[in-house]
Amino acid sequence: MKSLVTAEDIKQLHRDGKASLDIVPSCTIITPEARDVAKKLGVKMLEADTSTSNKPAVEANARQAIKQAVEAKLPAGKHAPALLEQLIEKAMRELNAPVPYCDREVAANGVILVRGGSVKFGRFDGVPDQVVGLTDVITAADNSSIAAGFMQWEKCNFPWTLTYDEIDVVLEGELHITCNGKTHIGKPGDVFLIPKGAAIEFGTPTKVRFVYVTYPADWSISK
Q: Which UniProt keywords apply (predicted)?
C-alpha cells in the first residue's frame, strides 16, 4: 500500500514551518500538483532509507492524507462520518492506479498551454459509488488566482454545493444542471456560470465532457 502526498499536505508542512518531507519512493505517490507546490514553497522531498520503512505507518500516513484531501473537497458540514469513511476506503483501494496527468507547455512569461487531448483522468472522490473523471490542469501552484480542469462521466447524477464560483464549458455530450427544481441543459459550445453557494445537481442521461474554471484557485481552503 502506497501513501499519498497531496498539495494540501505540502501547504500544511509549509504552514508548520517545515522545509522538507521524508518519503520512501517505492511506497509514495506524489501528485503533480504537490510537486509543483513543493517547488514553489521550497519544500524538499528527502528519500528515506527503505530498510527502516514501516508498512503500518505508511498506510496510516496515506489514510490521513486521503482524509484531508476528501474533507477539502466535500462541502463543510454537508457529509456524514460514514460517507467520509467510505470515500477514504475507496481512495485507499485506488492508490495503485496511475496518477492523472496532462502535457503542458510553460512559457517564460507564465503563459501555459495544456494539450486537452493528453489529459488522463483521475477519479473524483466527492461522488461515492460513481465513476466520475476529474483532472486539474491549472492550479494555484501556477501562480494563478483561478484554476481549471476537465471532468467527464456517463449516465449519473450527483448533488453538489459550491464553495467557489465556477464556469463550465461543455465540450461533448450534455451537461445537466438542476437547481430549484428546474434542469438546464448545456450542449457542446454552451457555457454555465454557477455562483458560489449554489446547491445544484450535476448530471447527464448520456455522457458529458467539459472544462471547468473555478475562482479562487485554492477554493478548498477559502471556505
A: Kinase, Transferase
134-178 per-position pLDDT tens digit: 999 998 888 899 999 999 999 999 999 999 999 999 999 999 999
What's the burial of 109, exposed, middle or buried (CB within 10 Å: 0-12/13-18/19+)?
A: exposed
DSSP state of 93: H
Task: State yes or no: cis peptide before 216, omega within 30 of 0.
Answer: yes
Distant-in-sequence, close-in-space partners of 180: CB < 8 Å, separation ≥ 6: none
H-only helix segments in the chain: 7-15, 32-41, 55-73, 81-93
Residue pLDDT, tens place only, 103-126: 889 888 889 999 999 998 888 877
